[in-house]
Amino acid sequence: MGFGRVWYHPASDLMRARRGLISGAFLVVLASAAAAQDVPQLTVGRLTGEDAPQIDGRVDERAWALAEPFTGFIQQEPNEGQPATERTEVRFLIGRGTLYIAVICYDSTPGEIVVSESRRDAGLADTDSIEILLDTFNDGQNAFVFGTNPFGIELDGQVMGEGQTAAGGFMGSGIGGSQRGAFRGFNANWDADWAVRAGITERGWEAEFAIPLRTLRYNPGDERTWGVNVMRNIRRKNEQVFLSPVPRGYSLYRVSSAGKLNGLTLPARRDLRFIPYAAGAVNDDKTLRTGGVDRSGRLGLDVKWGVRADLTLDATINTDFAQVEADEEQVNLTRFALFFPEKRPFFLENAQLFQVGQPQAVDLFFSRRIGLDPSGQPIDIIGGARLSGKLGGGYNIGLLNLQTDEALDHRTGGRLAPGNNFTVVRLQRQVGRSNFGGIFVNRQGVGHLAPEDDFNRAYAVDAAWQATSNGRLFAFLARTDSPDRKGGSDYAGRVYYNYASPVWTTAFGYSQVGEQFNPEVGFLQRKAYRRVESRYVFQYQPQRWPSIRRFLSSLNYNVYLDLENQLESTFGHWHVFEIQPQRGGRITYSMDFGQDRPKRPFTVYQDVEGRRVIIPQGEYVSWNGGLEYISDPSAPVNVSFQSKNGRFYDGDHWGFEFLLGARAGARLLSSLGWNHDDIELPFGHFRNDLVPLNIGYSFTSLASLQGLIQYNRQSSTISSNVRLALLNRSGTGLFVVYNDRRDTSDLTSDTVLGRSFIVKYTRLLDF
After folding, report:
1. What pLDDT does residue 248 have?
2. Helix (H, G, I), strand (E, B) or coil at 257
3. Which residue, 54, 113, 135, 732, could crosslink 143 as a Cys pair with Cβ 3.0–4.6 Å?
């Protein structure tokens, strides 16, 4: 038997490789073209001589016939890629300086529509709802969101960087959740001037939106295209459907997945608004040595000017935040500072643009450092301005300057600190789905109380690089400068990569913070460390058990080294399993574990009687196991419970978190919580209870009465915050606020520690 000779020529492989590359490139082009064709294309209807539709929550006006309805909604949950089980129609009209949107949510059983929220900006996850995303610059990154439910509430917000402006930390356990205002890539606190009406009809439920173009930011011109997406939540089925499909593992905020709204004729934007206010207050603080009842009145003004269609100037004079909701109290069992979110309206528009660093760990700019002392007491803001928006060519800009008055000691009436001037300069460049930028933050003491060289400056460059369609790399490098007596200069930085898919999410990163790094106008949880972090999440949707939506397991692990590379602490959180029923809620067993080596003693507990529990310097191991149950949150009565049991700094820790929620229809909502900790250490034994009671009643979608009552065993106080809001436009209107703080110990002869009554009226005047 013979074998034929096989000749090898090196050019033959090269030719095959070239053919393969050409074929591959051709397939990529075909796939891209097919993907482009698959993107939903909508055309806006145009109002000319016709009457504008009446915004009454009933889609029956003749004008809506000018817009072709879109109906092809696709499920993300529970059956990804399948058609929606209920029909949805959405129409877009433009004319008379307004964008009109109509949505008909057909429902086969209208009597089972769930309406569980009735207050402006309330969350829409546990109610039948519609959310509309408008990418007005068609850049695939940034957008506005408008939403409502059958009650007709107004929800609005801003998306930046597809909801991923900065990578967060680990997924912690617990039923409390983050407080409103702790935004990252989505800012739900932005308030726009628009109108919506909705209601349940024989077809299901319907909604009509009227959004003035001056409310939005865009590029003017003819035949413009916006990105657009719409998400409908069918709550009794726990079903989420999209106009343009969004992969599981992502939300509506994935702007790059949006469809296209074509045929927009957009005028040059003219927007000038004045928001004057008048406020009066009566304050009786029994803890002040000055004594007596303080009566005060204030006048002030906010101005908003649309310098261009894509650039806005905000100015404020004699700023007041009397109507802002009270902070929810937190229990701190660590040696590090707690994070309380920003809620004051002036700081919230385009707030994500100013966010640089690692949220709630290393923030270069944290607006709560302006106009508030460390205890949360207000410091008068004399005035200031902010310019934010786009410069063209893919650049975003943010400029802020504010002047505060001298700080007063609220107990003695003496002056504590000088006035301060705050300046922030932010520049960012968008490249596709990535962005790169820098920030400068300056605090300068002014006035006769300011010592020489009273300043603090922070500088940083940052990047968010979309490495793949599902992978994103975050990085920043920062420096702070202070006078030598405050430590001089030092650096901090972080690199973090996150990959998310429908089944797996993986993330890992490295960060370092210098010992003298000191962003005084930022938030820094701890300093002088090197940190290695990782996160792994696996989620699986079983097909054989229709009552179960998803199984999930996750692991987060963080290692902190000091700057000498000695182990300082570790922290891990293991979601051993999480079962999510089809109707909502979850059942979870999780474990927290780690070790800590404090280099100096710290106080873990101190009560009003002065009794302290101090943990000495040393090496400690802690672990905690807990079973968590959350019932269907859309039900009229829902329960959340989490147990905590384990070791804590060589001692024993037992506790629980409990939350009972109840609602009567959509108008009356209430919740009662109880966070209990019982800790027995070799250094002392203490118990703590935190009991918050929330009650809210909505007369209409714009008129509500809210109450927050909190009992704190550690401080032996009961605090109350009652807030009546009668809103008109864009969050303005009449606010009546009553605050009360009472002592539950036997240390004072007067139970009442302080009380205040505030009336504030704001009015929006636009031109």
Report:
1. 83
2. helix
3. 135
Contact 273, 304 (CB under 8 A): yes
143-176: b or e for each residue (b if 16 or more CB lie within 10 Å)? bbbbbbbbbbbbbbbbbbbbbbbbbbbbeebebb
* Strand ranges in 362-467 using DSSP code E only, listed in sequence order: 362-363, 381-392, 395-404, 407-408, 415-417, 419-431, 434-446, 455-466
Comparing CA positions, the residue from 561, 539, 565 lying closest to residue 552 is: 539
Contact 517, 524 (CB under 8 A): yes
Taking the chain, what is the end-to-end CA distance rounded to the nearest angstrom?
97
The Cα 172–Cα 178 span in angstroms is 10
Q: Which residues pair with 725 in a beta bridge?
A: 704, 735
Residue 174, pLDDT score: 30
The sign of the torsion formed by the CA atoms of 681, 682, 683, 686 equals: positive
At 242, list the tokens.
């999209």
pLDDT in the model for residue 33 = 37
User: CA-CA distance, 354 to 462, in Å (whole number)?
Assistant: 11
* CB-CB contact of 499 with 471 (8 Å): yes
Between CA 594 and CA 313 the distance in angstroms is 48
For 642, other C-beta atoms within 10 Å of its C-beta total 21
Measured CA to CA, the distance from residue 543 to residue 555 in angstroms comes to 25
Instruction: Say how far residue 339 (Cα) sits from the centre of its chain.
Output: 13
CA 559 to CA 369: how far, in whole Å? 29
Cα of 584 vs its chain's centroid, Å: 22
Sites in the chain below the pLDDT cut of 50: 1-37, 168-183
DSSP reduced 3-state for 644? strand
CA dist., res. 316 & res. 305, Å (int): 12
CB environment 332-371: b (16+ within 10 A), e (fewer)? eeeeeeebbbbbbbbbbbbbbbbbbbbbbbbbbbbbbbbb
**Are 445 and 452 within 8 A, CB to CB?**
no
The label of the residue with tokens 């927050």 reads 708
Q: What is the pLDDT of residue 553?
A: 95
Give residue-wise pLDDT tens across range 555-605: 999 999 999 999 999 999 999 999 999 888 999 999 999 999 998 999 998
C-alpha to C-alpha distance for 90 and 148, rounded to whole angstroms = 14
d(Cα 691, Cα 638) in Å, to the nearest integer? 17
- pTM of the full predicted structure? 0.81
* Largest Cα–Cα separation, the chain: 115
